Amino acid sequence: MWKWLKKNGCMGFALGVAWLSGCTNVDVDAIIPYHNDKLSLDGEFCTTDPADVIYSTRVLFLIDCSDSMQWNDPNYSRADAIQSIMDMYKDVDAVSFGIIRFGETVEVETDAFTKNPEELRNALLPIKGEDPDDPEKKKQYLGGTDYIKVLGKALEFVVRDRVTNYQKRDQVYIAVFITDGAPQAGDFDPSATVLQILDLVRSLHEMNVTLHTVMMSAEMQGVPLEFLDILQNMAVEGGGEYRQLKGSNTIQAILGDLLDLTGVLRVFDLKEFVVYNLNTVLAEFNGSLDSYADSDGDGLADFQEIALGTSPVLEDTDGDCLSDMVEVHTGGDPLAKEMHGLDCSSPDFADDDQDGLNNWEEDLLGTDKSHFDTDMDGLPDGLEERSNTNPLVGDERGDYDGDFYPNLDEVRGHTNPRMDEGDLQPELGYQYSITKIGRNRGRFCYHFRVDNITLRTPQAALGKNVGLNRIRIVVMDSPTDNPYLVGNMIQMDAEIVYREPNFRDPNALTMFVDPEGFQ
Predict the structure, then answer these.
(1) Percent of the chain whose predicted confidence (pLDDT) is above 90
(2) How many other C-beta atoms are found inside a 10 Å radius of the C-beta of residue 290?
(3) Continuous segment of H or E residues that includes residue 63
(4) How far apart are the C-alpha atoms of 337 and 342, rounded to whole Å?
(5) Under a CB-based contact definition with an 8 Å cutoff, are residues 182 and 223 in contact?
(6) Torsion of CA 491, 494, 495, 496, to 10 degrees
(7) Element spanning 8, H or E
(8) Which residues sit opposite 496 in a β-bridge?
(9) Higher pLDDT, 135 or 94
(10) Is 35 left (phi over 0), alpha (psi -120 to 50) or beta?
(11) Diameter of the chain by CA atoms?
């Protein structure tokens, strides 16, 4: 039997992955031999549909208001074009804007990124020589053109936003640098000025900011040679595009092209694929290293729970909303309530990010309860806690037990990253085969097979059948433009009953996944 779990989108965005909407067919692969305790899974999956995930996008306009703009943009076309862009996205909740004007000085016209129409309209008024607070006050033109000052202010603006919204990992930042001239040379040294400018652009790009540059006048003339390609080089270092206003091309057309909504959609590809049996734990018992039953699926083997005095069939023996495993790992007492009178069914103790840890457990462990993979290493926090890796640190390439198998390989193989299995590693570990089979409407699709999944005979827990093994399949994807991030997580459970010595339901060596609706 297959049980489809809740779909999880990064920061609450919908996934829309069609293969999760159907059921599966389970076929008999062979007659089960006596005492057979191994299972194979075979199937396909696709990554997230880009059209279903619009990331929270912040657009920062850096607008040249130097003195020369009174000749190069006498009709304030840049203000009208920016207003048109903001109007275009006024009903798109995921898109917000910030406005900074610059010349020899810098004026931050919005305190933060905002969607407030009145605030944004007022932020553009000074470009036209109008002050929303004092119509008689003119602060339209700001002297020279100091690239360094405005880029530094832009970096401060983005850093402040990231600090304020530190729990939101999915922001896409786009900065549009609009100017009509060359930068001012700091200390009259053009080469040093260029280096400072490009260093600031690289710092912005490291903060996930894509920088586009727009030139609103003819080619630079009478400027140091170092400045001739400065805007093109800024766009290259910022991961964006350079555009120039010439011919029939208008500033509105340029901004409309650079800020097309399709530009803030992201294509996702596979980051990590993991299968594990929630009802087995690899451990050593009476000198024998093997997979042992974990009847309640809390990450502690039944024999370990018996030794501790906890219940093998209750994930939270003392009823304090902390699993026995979490209490053991954090030095708590799984037999004594940390707090009394708690309702563990309350939303306060839900698992909001579906990573296998409830919100209170995440608070205790210091993990992010709004994101399923705190350290962004491709493994859900709950699985890391079960596997004895660190959900707060990207330790997937480490090797805690020094057995020459990286921690990630051990988690995927359902072995123990803290225990050297020696020559038994190949015999105990799961065996994976994953093949990319193509691309379908922006989604990458894969075929997978996982062999050597060990089954055990758990006790009946919380109304479950004796011998129920829940095999969890986890797919993590990431945006192709930044594979170090984690985009979305999809989970599902395969359920098979195994009772020693030879009962299995379904009676198959291999369970085939053939979801309805897969295209």
Answers:
(1) 61
(2) 16
(3) strand 57-64
(4) 10
(5) yes
(6) -150
(7) none
(8) 469
(9) 94
(10) left
(11) 92
Instruction: Tell which wins on pLDDT, 439 or 288.
Output: 288
What are the residue ranges spanned by the domains of the chain?
A: 2-52+269-512, 57-265
Give 309's contacts (C-beta < 8 A, 6+ positions apart): 335
Question: What are the residues whose beta carbons fall under 8 Å from the beta carbon of 383, sequence distance 6 or more?
Answer: 274, 276, 355, 356, 411, 474
**pLDDT value at position 322?**
94
pLDDT at 342: 79
142-156, 165-179, 374-388: lowest mean pLDDT where? 165-179
Alpha helices in 50-144 (DSSP H): 69-72, 77-88, 117-124
Side-chain-side CA neighbours of 438 within 13 Å: the count stands at: 4
What is the Cα–Cα distance from 519 to 44, expressed in whole angstroms?
Answer: 11
Q: Which two tokens stand for residue 122?
A: 């007022």
C-alpha to C-alpha distance for 193 and 223, rounded to whole angstroms: 13
57-265: CATH topology is Rossmann fold (3.40.50)
Contact present, 295 and 210 (Cβ < 8 Å): no
Which are the contacts of 193, defined by CB distance < 8 A and separation ≥ 6? 147, 148, 183, 184, 185, 186, 226
Q: Which of 7-11, 18-22, 90-94, 206-210 is modeled with the greatest confidence?
A: 206-210
User: What confidence category does residue 222 fall into, taking pLDDT thresholds of 50, 70 and 90?
Assistant: low
pLDDT band at residue 419 under the 50/70/90 scheme: very high
3-state secondary structure of 475: strand
pLDDT tens for each residue of 39-86? 999 999 999 887 677 678 899 999 999 998 988 898 999 999 999 999
Per-residue model confidence (pLDDT) at position 518? 33
d(CA 402, CA 405): 8
Q: Residue 273's Cα: distance from chain center in Å? A: 15
Give rounded-to-5 percent helix, strand, coil for the chain.
30, 25, 45
Phi, psi of 433 (to 5 degrees): -135, 120
Q: So what's the pLDDT on residue 221?
A: 65
In whole angstroms, give the CA distance from residue 479 to residue 266.
Answer: 6
Strand partners, 434: 448
Residue 139, token pair as written in the block:
């602060």
Q: Count other C-beta atoms under 10 Å from residue 159's C-beta.
A: 13
Matching residue, tokens 């590809």 = 269
Cα dist from 475 to 58, 271, 359, 479, 487, whole Å: 28, 8, 22, 14, 10
Model confidence at 346, pLDDT cuts 50, 70, 90, reads confident
